């Protein structure tokens, strides 16, 4: 499976990955859920949730399962976003090594 994105001329467009915390923040804000309430439901400290939003903490498998239970968004989706982001960062680091 090829993950390339091409423009109308067939040239590859580089898409910058985003940390899944950005999507989580957007999802919570769209649903108008208080951040302190989601942190409590996830059984994490509010500052840990803020660190996820800012990309300083990753979404673990356990957290992904809790997100699925609370938001109804597949744990596989959350882990997939995290994996894609991690691979993007690793490739960027390798390219500049």
Walk me through what this model shows.
This protein has 97 residues and is mainly alpha-helical. It has a single domain, classed as 434 Repressor (Amino-terminal Domain). It is built from 5 helices and 2 strands. It has a two-stranded antiparallel sheet. The radius of gyration is 15 Å and the shape is elongated. The chain starts with a strand and ends with a helix.
Give descriptors for this structure.
97 residues, mainly alpha, 434 Repressor (Amino-terminal Domain), 61% helix, 4% strand, elongated
Short note summarizing the structure:
With 97 residues, this protein is mainly alpha-helical.
Number of helices: 5
Please compute the radius of gyration using only Cα atoms: 15 Å
Tally of domains: 1
CATH topology (fold) name: 434 Repressor (Amino-terminal Domain)
Percentage of residues in DSSP E strands: under 5%
Secondary-structure element string: EEHHHHH
**Given the C-alpha coordinates, what overall shape results?**
elongated
- Calculate the mean pLDDT score and round it: 90
List the helices and strands and how they pair.
Layout: E1 5-6, E2 12-13, H1 20-30, H2 35-42, H3 46-53, H4 61-71, H5 75-95
Antiparallel strand pairs: 1-2
Helix pairs in contact: 4-5
């Amino acid at each position: 499976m090829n993950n390339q994105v091409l423009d109308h001329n067939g040239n590859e467009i580089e898409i910058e990955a985003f940390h899944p915390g950005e999507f989580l923040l957007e999802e919570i804000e769209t649903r108008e859920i208080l951040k302190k309430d989601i942190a409590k439901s996830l059984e994490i400290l509010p500052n840990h949730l803020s660190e996820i939003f800012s990309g300083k903490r990753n979404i673990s498998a356990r957290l992904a399962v809790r997100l699925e239970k609370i938001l109804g968004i597949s744990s596989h989706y959350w882990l997939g976003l995290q994996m894609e982001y991690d691979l993007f960062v690793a490739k960027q680091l390798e390219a500049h090594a």
